[in-house]
Amino acid sequence: MTTLYLARHGETIDNANKIMQGQTQGRLTDNGRKQAAELADRLSAVHLDAIISSDLRRAIDTASTVAAPRGLAVTTTPLLRERDWGSFTGRYIPSLKGEAWPDDIESLERLQARASDFLSFVKQNFDGKTVLAVGHGIINKAIQAVHFGKQMNEIARMENAEVRVLHID
After folding, report:
1. Catalytic site residues?
2. pTM of the complete model
C-alpha cells in the first residue's frame, strides 16, 4: 500500500487578493512561506520516500521547504497543476459570481482524468512508499473525489498548506 500525503501549497499573493490563479506560477506571500515551514514541521516525524509537486512555482516552493531539511529532491509533474480556468484566469473571484462560464475552462471530466492519471502515476512509481504530493485546491479535490469514488462537491475545500492522507492499494 502507498501512503499519499496530499497537501495544498502555501498562500500566494493571488490567494490573498482573491485572484483566480489557475495555471499561472504564483508567488508565496510571507504567510505562505510561514505555512510551508509549518507544514515541514508538522511532517518532520513522518518518513517520506519521495516528494512530488505540481510544476507551478507556488507548489514547488512549498514542496522544496519540506524537502530541503530531508535532503530529498522534488519531482515535478504537470498532472498536479491547478485547473485551467481559461479566460477567468487573473480575474477577481468575487466578480465572477453569476457569470456564464467560458468554453475555455478545463472540463471536470478532463480534470478528473488528470487526477486519475496522477493516482496511477503514484501507484506505478511509488508502490509501497510514503509520498508527499503538493498540489492545488481544485486538483487536490479532484484527486480525492476520484480516490474515494465521490463527487467533487462532496470533498471539503483544502486550506493553504493543509494535508490529507490517502492510502492507495
Report:
1. 9, 82
2. 0.96
